[in-house]
Design goal:
Distance between the termini: 17 Å
Radius of gyration: 16 Å
Largest sheet: none
Helix content: 55-70%
Strand content: under 5%
Order of helices and strands: HHHHHHHHHH
Structural class: mainly alpha
Number of strands: 0
Shape: globular
Number of helices: 10
């Protein structure tokens, strides 16, 4: 089914319920992710020295952490971006998702979810946060335009097949976020065929 719309409190919302990922992040031993103002992604045209510049710089720092080889930094960057996106609505969400698209966040998340044995990340919380962030980037409830761009980028990166192995996980949050990402990305008949081929429907 295509991703459904609805407001932040709507039962039809395509956003994952938040912030259940805290449990896995805290079990890893990372810091507890602090609440982030919803205005973090500015809704006005940035000007030098404004809050918008500061907000962009903060988001850029978190995005840079997605390429870190340090597990704590990687989890911190993923968790903060998840929280920023979950807290954003309207024009703030549009600006935030557009910036993340330009910075190649979808492509980096696909790399983190790569299933090849030589590059797969062994930390469960990295998988969970990557799935959660990717699912929200493809959510029409957060940003209808940006979600379409995210789905196009996922397809170009051959990312959908990276999601399916996580349906076989025995870890509840991993399976939950995998289902959310798959639900928000299913706008292509080829995906349905791939799910059948890999046994996702039976699962």
């Amino acid at each position: 089914l295509p991703p459904s719309g609805g407001g932040p409190d709507s039962p039809e919302s395509s956003r994952p319920s938040s912030p259940s990922y805290y449990h896995s992040a805290e079990s890893f031993g990372s810091k507890s992710f602090a609440s982030t103002p919803r205005s973090a992604a500015a809704s006005s045209t940035p000007r030098s020295g404004t809050i918008a510049d500061v907000a962009t710089a903060v988001v850029a720092v978190h995005i840079a952490k997605l390429r870190s080889t340090n597990d704590t930094d990687l989890c911190d960057g993923l968790g903060e971006l998840c929280q920023l996106l979950d807290a954003a609505y309207g024009e703030a969400a549009t600006n935030l998702t557009a910036y993340m698209m330009r910075e190649g966040v979808v492509e980096r998340l696909v790399t983190l979810l790569e299933s090849s044995a030589e590059v797969v990340h062994q930390l469960e919380v990295v998988h969970q946060l990557s799935l959660l962030l990717l699912g929200n980037l493809m959510s029409t409830d957060i940003d209808a335009v940006g979600s379409s761009d995210a789905r196009r980028r996922l397809r170009r990166a051959d990312g959908f097949r990276r999601l399916l192995p996580y349906l076989q996980s025995e870890v509840y949050l991993t399976q939950l976020y995998a289902l959310g990402s798959i639900r928000n990305s299913c706008a292509d008949v080829d995906y349905a065929l791939l799910m059948q081929q890999q046994g996702a429907v039976d699962r």
